[in-house]
Write a structure and sequence with these properties.
Immunoglobulin-like; 52% strand; mainly beta; single chain; five-stranded antiparallel beta sheet; six-stranded mixed beta sheet; 1 helix; signal
């Protein structure tokens, strides 16, 4: 078995979801058994910074795997090779994995009018016996906007059983302006963690207002940390604010 890689024709994507699709292959040709984007972790893109991630494709054939190409594409305009070529390794006599890295930025997503379109992993695989397979949809995934959350609980310190006002803001990357923008009309959870414990519990759920503003009141009963959390959706990543400690006296 000789494992080689061809120039991986593609460049990047950020995603929270990856969906593998059955490979197209000739009878008795190579079969793709696994596709992993960003190590299986969620991906999201902020307002300005570029993001680099890896894609790995594993293929199997009884004669062994000879070579492979990997493409990452968005619509018809984005189809570039791996930034540093592919690194390939034999997992066994019949199975090999090739990995490449890709970089994407806000310009590559927004400027081409495809901010919410799916990305595709395309690949071609040759076996040692010269059999071949190709698919344009080895996997699909999406690029999501990076969300941020802030929190402030006041007054600090606060008297026991007095009213505590918790405010904050939910924002997400605006790829057009290259800035963060308030994200309104979204369900956000207020959570509390008692001093000396490790677990947050949800106290209530509120909807973000104009400009992503968050505000609610609670009764202060014990020392601890307050934070907002957002679960994310199909276009926007999840986010958690750093807990704000309140001393109850």
């Amino acid at each position: 078995m000789r494992m080689r890689s061809l120039a991986a024709v593609s460049s990047g994507a950020l995603a929270l979801s990856v969906f593998a699709v059955p490979a197209v292959h000739a009878d008795d040709g190579p079969v793709i058994t696994d596709v992993v984007v960003n190590g299986g972790a969620a991906l999201a893109l902020g307002p300005t910074a570029a993001k680099t991630f890896k894609v790995s494709v594993t293929a199997r054939h009884s004669s062994g795997i000879d070579k492979m190409t990997i493409h990452v594409s968005l619509a018809s305009f984005f189809d570039r090779q791996s930034d540093r070529g592919l690194t390939c390794a034999a997992v066994s006599a019949t199975t090999s994995t090739c990995t490449g890295s890709w970089t994407v930025d806000t310009g590559g997503v927004y400027d081409n009018g495809a901010a919410d379109d799916p990305w595709y992993v395309r690949t071609s695989v040759w076996a040692d016996d010269a059999s071949f397979m190709n698919t344009n949809t080895a996997a699909t995934f999406t690029v999501r906007r990076l969300a941020t959350l802030s929190v402030n609980a006041a007054p600090e310190p606060v008297r026991k059983n007095a009213k505590l006002t918790v405010t904050g803001k939910l924002a997400r990357a605006d790829w057009k302006t290259r800035k963060n923008a308030g994200y309104s009309g979204r369900s956000v959870k207020l959570q509390f963690r008692k001093k000396g414990t490790d677990t947050y519990s949800t106290v209530k759920t509120v909807s973000s207002g104009s400009g992503g503003a968050l505000k609610t009141t609670v009764k202060a009963t014990t020392d601890g940390y307050w934070r907002w959390t957002f679960g994310g959706n199909g276009t926007t990543s999840a986010a958690k604010a750093t807990g704000d400690y309140v001393d109850v006296r």
